[in-house]
Amino acid sequence: MKSREQWGSRLGFVLAAAGSAVGLGNIWKFPYMTGQNGGGAFLIIYLFFVFTIGLSVMLAEFAIGRAAQRNPIGAFAVLKGKAWPLVGAIGMIAGFLILSFYSVVAGWTIAYIVKMASGTLVGDADALGAAFGSFISDPVEPILYHALFMGLTVAVVLGGVHDGIERACKVLMPMLFVLLIVLIIRAVTLPGAEKGLAFFLMPDFSKISADMFNAALSQAFFSLSIGMGAMITYGSYLNRHENLGKSALWVTSLDSIVAVLAGLLILPAVFAFGFDPAAGPGLTFITLPAVFAQMPGGVFFGILFFLLLTVAALTSAVSLMQPIIAYFSDEKGWNPKVSAVFFGIVIFVLGIPSSLSLGIWSDFHIIGEKGFLDSVDYITSNLMMPIGGIMTSLFVGWVVADKMKDEATNNNEKKFKFLNGWLFICRFLAPLGISWVLISGL
Ligand code: PHE
Question: Rounded distance, CA 262 to CA 196, Å?
């Protein structure tokens, strides 16, 4: 086998994995899911899933990837074979599907950079809501931005793991962080914002339902980029010396911090401007322009924000594509550049019905009342990724546990206090807990 690319440093790896985790899931999806699922109680269940099942599955993926030094399908094949590579294959298909609609939404963020700059995002809450609605339902404009975003994703993948992904993450992640803090200061000092803070931070446990558990679990998988092989792939570019447990803890913590910050930004603003917290996928795009309008230099901050959000989405999109590229390069000897362009086009085409499902195709329902985009989101986040998580946990906990113990402790060189706790979660808590949530969701 030819020698594989490697991350430049521990920090580079953690930032790249955090770059995969932090994206639209945190800033677009998390606030509206929290809004739809009752606020503070959702936050607590979400964080519980993240730091038990989520953290364990992430560590499991890092360990599988580093042990095998392969793409997800190859990794299961090298470590065990039999039917296990199927888990990697399902994950790669999930990556395909997720990226197809992810890129559509990321296209909206690019469009919003342009709209902020050209001063078309003005007016009151109703006007901003109407502007968003008419933009996403247009049959042409959002698809052009979707094409642009896929083009950018392919360009970063062409730059290679080290130069492209790692370098972008090192600079832009800290910038996004600082900007979020600045914007939160504005949002929480708006008159009426305290109601939003209370909604987000004071749990009302009477609202707890099976749906809420289901939503929190699928959001945890989506936001942490786990259950579909992205973290196996990133782990495969890791050298033998890194401490996997610590890295996984860093990535889950950073991801959760950004989600909570996004909640602190969006939800107070939602209440201050009298929007409906359960409004759904438009929430972030409608609320933020209203916040920018209320601050000095709002246009500047608006442009900067949507720019950084686009980059955060880009570093996630790259990780959705990388398993596919790695598979065809490791196993089939394809030139990664050729496959990046080829699959970029395939995924772009797959995203078109998602975009149209918000406008001219809104009458087509695939699952229940859900249109194409919502259905693809549902199948991947609520089914494929959690099932991937069950299989990954079982694999690490029961099938290759000894090898994975060595991997997590670097052959007993490093102390890993939670080794037994981790194995317990992989063996019992994750498979049973996820199954329970999935079954009660149906
Ligand atoms: N975690 C990313 C986000 O929150 C999305 C993603 C999912 C990326 C799965 C890779 C794999 O935006």
Answer: 12
Mean local confidence (pLDDT), 238-250: 91
Query: Does the beta carbon of 109 sit less than 6 angstroms from any atom of ligand 1?
Result: no
Burial class (CB in 10 A: 0-12, 13-18, 19+), 299: middle
Q: How far apart (Å, rounded) are the C-alpha atoms in residues 351 and 267?
A: 29
The pTM (predicted TM-score) of the whole model is 0.96
User: What is the pLDDT confidence band of residue 1, given thresholds at 50, 70 and 90?
Assistant: very low
Cα-Cα-Cα-Cα torsion 261, 149, 282, 349, nearest 10 degrees, comes to: -140
Distance 302 CA to ligand 1 centre (A): 23
Ligand 1 pocket check for 225: Cβ under 6 Å: yes
Query: What is the best residue among 29, 153, 223 to mutate for testing ligand 1's pocket, by most ligand atoms within 8 Å of CB?
Result: 223
Report the DSSP beta bridge partners of residue 367.
370
What is the SS3 assignment for 367? strand
Query: Cα-flanking dihedrals φ and ψ of residue 418, to 5°?
Result: -95, 20
DSSP code of residue 323: H
Give the model's confidence band at 3: pLDDT under 50 very low, under 70 low, under 90 confident, else very high.
low
Alpha helix (H) residue ranges in 159-240: 167-188, 193-201, 210-224, 230-235
